[in-house]
Amino acid sequence: MIKITSLNATPKFTKDIAGVSEEIKTSAANALKLLLTNPQANSLRLHRMSGYKPPLWKIDILPNKSWQIVLEIHGEVATLKRLLTHKEADRL
Questions:
Q1: Structural domain total, the chain
Q2: Which pTM was predicted?
Q3: pLDDT in tens, 60-84
Q4: Is residue 1 part of a domain?
């Protein structure tokens, strides 16, 4: 069972979030709050991306799964790597 107690943001994530609409920023903030309280919540759809070492994970921030946050998990710390559309995240 995954437990997240803190978040760190990379400069790239900070740049990504600065360039999106207020709606996406709010949705991202809500998803990150949920990640801290219940990482296994169905609405987040936390799932591991294949082919990455160290492993990368994704969460959905909107119900239609059109935006995702890519992160690394080390112990109980999640490092936020990117905020991308689903299509962009699939091309990483």
A1: 1
A2: 0.95
A3: 999 999 999 999 999 999 999 999 9
A4: no
